[in-house]
């Protein structure tokens, strides 16, 4: 399994395929070709100084007579953890705050309206160790913890909606921990929070000792720039999870993740792209980068997490998608979306109209009953 030395699928295709083949391969793997965004020179200079990748693309929609284009710029951030996992907790959090502040400043230069960070962005990825201290010390209040207050400042200073996925400690309800995304309005107010609905239990990739399945359903947040929701990491394997955010009106669904090559790299390009197609919305898949060395673990089997392969991307309802950010470097992906594309594609493919939800609602309601017998017709 390749680590950082294999930079990206895109670089590999471009290096090895003759141009006519490359164009056909890209047509199939990436859909309609996207225009590169003309981002400011100072943004590229700052990104290079800060040693992260910056890419930008525009998704276009057809002109309409009655509606004006609904343009929004989203920013996706992927990053390594700057300090080793055995550094003091407060220092690790501060280093991550500093790193993200530098990236958000570049996002602001690029006109980003909504930015989303990776899953549990304030900590090393320790969920599979099954140890408590020091990892549970990274948990914070979603409403007024230090990270939320930090993000409120960013949001207000840059007039930007901030989606901040953290490990939440809910001290109002018995100190329960949750895997949560806090949504902060561009005014700086906390708009609300949403929790991860599905927890991985995939062999050693098991996060179930840290937090419970979310209990907040599928909230959608009305922002000044459009309706957004957050399907956290492993939730992307569950088509019904995407569907419910879409049924509640999400036009952009963020998928902040932490996932490794051996487990999911072949699924990664398919799932969020497919969800954008199936639900007539934009999806933003974000993954962290690098290896995480969690030294305190007592169980050898849970120490080696493998390689977090980055490759964050945005997909549109017409199946087009951006290239991925690199597998090896911190990065900011900026995408200009015209949200009118959601309704335009819906009117062509009609998945909502032809979805037969009442039939599935009836059948599912029966299928979950303890005495249900599957309908199998035998000779
Ligand atoms: N953090 C998390 O849910 N990881 C699960 C891995 C995956 O879903 O690919």
Q: In short, what is this structure?
A:
With 379 residues, the protein is of the alpha/beta class. The protein is built from 10 helices and 17 strands. Strands 1-2-17-3-4-5-6-7 form an 8-stranded mixed β-sheet, sandwiched between helices.
Q: Which CATH first-tier class of the largest domain would you pick? A: Alpha Beta
Could you say what the CATH architecture of the largest domain is? 4-Layer Sandwich
Overall pLDDT level: 95
List the ligand species. Answer: N-(aminocarbonyl)-beta-alanine
Q: Note the run of SSEs as H and E.
A: HHEHEEHEHEEEEEEEHEHHEEEEEHH
Structural class: alpha/beta
Task: Tell me the helix content.
Answer: 25-40%
Sequence stretches where pLDDT stays below 50 over 5 or more residues: none
If you had to describe this structure to a student in words, what would you say it looks like?
There is one protein chain. The protein is α/β, with parallel strands linked by helices. It folds into two domains: 1-30, no CATH class; 38-368, Nitrilase/N-carbamoyl-D-aminoacid amidohydrolase (4-Layer Sandwich). Helices cover 29% and strands 22% of the residues. The strands form four sheets. Strands 1-2-17-3-4-5-6-7 form an eight-stranded mixed sheet, sandwiched between helices. Strands 10-11-12-13-16 form a five-stranded mixed sheet, covered by helices on one side. Helix 4 (89-109) links the parallel strand 3 (71-78) and strand 4. The chain is globular, with a radius of gyration of 21 Å. The mean pLDDT is 95. It binds N-(aminocarbonyl)-beta-alanine (URP). N-(aminocarbonyl)-beta-alanine binds at residues 119, 200, 205, 233-234, 237, 258-259, 263-264. It is found in: Cytoplasm.
């Amino acid at each position: 399994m390749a680590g950082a030395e294999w930079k990206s699928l895109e670089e590999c295709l471009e290096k090895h395929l003759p141009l006519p083949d490359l164009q056909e391969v890209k047509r199939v793997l990436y859909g309609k070709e996207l225009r590169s965004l003309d981002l400011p020179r100072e943004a590229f200079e700052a990104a290079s100084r800060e040693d992260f990748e910056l890419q930008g693309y525009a998704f276009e929609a057809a002109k309409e007579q009655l509606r004006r284009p609904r343009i929004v710029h989203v920013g996706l951030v992927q990053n390594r953890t700057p300090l080793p996992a055995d550094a003091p907790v407060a220092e690790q959090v501060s280093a991550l705050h500093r790193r993200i502040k530098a990236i958000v400043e570049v996002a602001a230069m690029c006109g980003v309206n909504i930015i989303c960070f990776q899953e549990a962005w304030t900590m090393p990825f320790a969920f599979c160790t099954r140890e408590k201290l020091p990892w549970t010390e990274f948990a914070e209040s979603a409403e007024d913890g230090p990270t939320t207050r930090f993000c409120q400042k960013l949001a207000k200073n840059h007039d930007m909606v901030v989606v901040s996925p953290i490990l939440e400690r809910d001290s109002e309800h018995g100190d329960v921990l949750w895997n949560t995304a806090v949504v902060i309005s561009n005014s700086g107010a906390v708009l609300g929070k949403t929790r991860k609905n599905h927890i991985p239990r995939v062999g050693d990739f098991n996060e179930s000792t840290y937090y419970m399945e979310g209990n907040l359903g599928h909230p959608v947040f009305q922002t000044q720039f459009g309706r957004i929701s957050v399907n956290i990491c492993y939730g992307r394997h569950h088509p019904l999870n995407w569907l419910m955010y879409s049924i509640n009106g999400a036009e952009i669904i963020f998928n902040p993740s932490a996932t490794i090559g051996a487990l999911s790299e072949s699924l990664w390009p398919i799932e969020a792209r497919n969800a954008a197609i199936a639900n007539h919305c934009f999806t933003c898949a974000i993954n962290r980068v690098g290896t995480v060395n969690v030294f305190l673990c007592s169980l050898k089997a849970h120490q080696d997490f493998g390689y977090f392969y980055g490759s964050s991307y945005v997909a549109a309802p017409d199946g087009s998608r951006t290239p991925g950010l690199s597998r090896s470097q911190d990065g900011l992906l900026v995408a200009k979306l015209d949200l009118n594309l959601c309704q335009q594609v819906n009117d062509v493919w009609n998945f909502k109209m032809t979805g037969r939800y009442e039939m599935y609602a009836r059948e599912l309601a029966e299928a979950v009953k303890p005495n249900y017998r599957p309908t199998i017709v035998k000779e």
